[in-house]
Amino acid sequence: MAKPKRIYLAGPEVFFPAEEHQAIVAEKKRLLQEVGFEGVDPLDTALTFSDDEAKPDRGHHIYQANRELMDSCDAIIANLTPFRGISADPGTVFEIGYMIGQGKPAFGFTLDSQHYRERAGATERDKLGHTIEDFGMSDNLMIEGGINDSGGQLFVADQQGEHRFFSAKLFRLCVQALAHA
After folding, report:
1. pLDDT (tens digit per residue) in 125-180
2. Which of 27, 42, 59, 177 has the fewest beta carbons closer than 10 A?
């Protein structure tokens, strides 16, 4: 496998206030640049919308722009820290699957050291009687399985990071693993 050059940066950070988002992305890009990679953030687009453009149309344009960014990248590093629930941001999970579907390696990190089942209540069934998977994995087995099959790796924090959703130390582990892939 040729050494990846452009790395797509997936995660819930796109929903953070602008200053917070920019600070985290700047650090990610700096850490990638140290090993000769270029970080590509989902907001690295020049999208503009007219006032009369319908919200669904805006959403489709964002989707298309992000697909084009992913197509231009060689690998993905995804923040899989649970966001708005017990699991990773669903858009981030889609982006991982999209990249893996193209045969590109996926790496990820999470700042939540609990296994998926623990976050789901540590029981065999939820309140509706549906089973809760118990494979000792950080998130749904398809996410972690896909990352591993792509040649990537998921890193789980053993301590809190400098931000609830970011740890430079954990991100650096992803970068180092990618550099040696």
Report:
1. 999 999 999 999 999 999 999 999 999 999 999 877 677 899 999 999 999 999 99
2. 59
Q: Which two tokens stand for residue 39?
A: 């970080």
Task: Dig out the tokens for 153 from the structure.
Answer: 């790796």
Does any domain span residue 1? no
For residue 116, is it within any domain?
A: yes
Q: Is residue 20 part of a domain?
A: yes
Q: What is the 3-state secondary structure (H, E, C) of 1-61?
A: CCCCCEEEEECHHHHCCHHHHHHHHHHHHHHHHCCCCEEECCCCCCCCCCCCCCHHHHHHH
Listed residue (44, 42, 46) closest to 77, CA to CA: 42
Nearest residue to 173 (alpha-carbon basis) of 69, 31, 24: 31
- Domain annotation covers residue 100: yes
List the structure tokens of 134. Answer: 């118990």
